[in-house]
Amino acid sequence: MYIEEISIINFKNLKDVQVEFSPRLNCLIGNNGSGKTNLMDAVYYLSFCKSFFNAADQLNINHDESFFMLNGNYRRDDSAEIISCGLQKGQKKQFKRNSKVYKRLMEHIGLLPLVMITPSDNSLILGGSDERRKFMDGVISQYNQNYLDDLLKYNRALLQRNNLLKQFASEHYFDAELLSIWDDQLVEYGTRIHDERKKFVEKLIPVFQEFYSFISQENEKVGLVHYSALYENNFANLLQQSLKKDRIAQHTTVGIHKDDLVFNIDEYPIKKLGSQGQNKTYLVSLKLAQYEFIKEISGMKPILLLDDIFDKLDRHRVEQIVKVVSDENFGQIFITDTNREHLDTIIKKMNADYRIFNVNSGIIEPLP
Ligand SMILES: Nc1ncnc2c1ncn2[C@@H]1O[C@H](COP(=O)(O)OP(=O)(O)OP(=O)(O)O)[C@@H](O)[C@H]1O
Fold first, then answer.
1. Looking at this predicted complex, what is its ipTM?
2. Residues 221-242: pLDDT tens digits?
């Protein structure tokens, strides 16, 4: 599966762009702030119906304009797919597959599998546990639509339960039966979500460790642990046990909304001790394991977006990563860099069909 061509109007600083891509390797070169990441984000948008960076959709519209449009021509299972998206200021976005508007955007997720590795993945290590839950949820919902549905329902029930706990406290009364309506829902959806996360992490760990050990040439050993109270007891019991605490706190203190992933390097938390290069190696290995996982489940080679991936890594680690992605296991790849030499080395090593594009102030031109 790959994107053959994209046209972009008014998406961030890309005002009028039309580019044909190589099915294998696409290199984007340009100075800082020229629009390389924005192009990748447009490709990301067409897979996920949202930007990797801007939670608020309107921020993706060029500052001087009132709408943006994206159109991507894809090859998938040997047939053509045309995916387009338009967003007008103050209105709901429209997402279309082969001219037919999606009723629910969720239906589109997973059609065009994609993995993006960017410097902002650092928040997975340095940020709060919500970042790591988002990582798990993002991957699982790419191949399991029921999961996303369960997650939405869980969050709705959680909000209702928390509102009720607040109401009980402010009005000085308590109704166990009323609360149990939300408990039952949390248990139903939460247990299913827990099982899916458990399966996902169990499969991810060995693949991730193999990538890390290959890229670092076995310099360090890494670990990854899924933390969830649901490993200790069933969810219904946990809610019962924490009821007193929840009433005092006026919110639900136990559940899959408290899950975390603990990242270790040589048995120490990477958050505290990892060097910048080790952190980067950890993140790249994690995302490559995600790639393998999605590839296996979807039966397609996802598009791989590598944004500024080689920064902070020594020459050996860069070489190892290039070796990994040159493999036939990988399909279409996009790489950004400010340095032409880096890209030339990669192109030489990969020995595959490629295109290079120069990006300058939002204008994208193929280079010979
Ligand atoms: N809504 C918007 N309207 C106009 N310009 C925008 C908008 N959002 C972002 N930009 C501009 O896009 C540019 C950033 O582009 P991008 O992140 O693609 O850079 P880059 O080429 O990847 O740079 P680097 O090498 O530093 O990573 C900035 O100049 C920013 O002002």
1. 0.98
2. 999 999 999 999 999 999 999 9
Dist. CA 140 → ligand 1 center (Å): 29
From the CA of 119, give the closest atom in ligand 1.
Answer: 27
Write out pLDDT tens, residues 123-163.
Answer: 999 999 999 999 999 999 888 889 999 999 999 999 999 99
Domain hosting 323: range is: 1-113+301-368
Q: Is residue 342 part of a domain?
A: yes
Residue nearest to atom 16 of ligand 1 (CA): 35
Within a domain: 123: no
User: Binding site for ATP: residue ranges?
Assistant: 30-37
Lining ligand 1 with CB less than 6 A are 12-13, 30, 32-38, 59, 61-63, 308, 336, 338, 359
Do 204 and 350 fall within a single domain? no
pLDDT band at 359 (very low <50, low <70, confident <90, very high): very high
Distance of CA 261 to the CA centre of its chain: 15
SS3 content of the chain, % helix, strand, coil (to 5): 50, 25, 25
CB 365 within 8 A of CB 357: yes
**What is the model's pTM?**
0.92
CA dist 92 → 6, 62, 218, 227 (Å): 22, 17, 49, 37
Residue among 38, 312, 340 whose CB has most ligand 1 atoms within 8 A, to mutate: 38
Q: Which residues pair with 117 in a beta bridge?
A: 306
User: Does 120 map to a domain?
Assistant: no
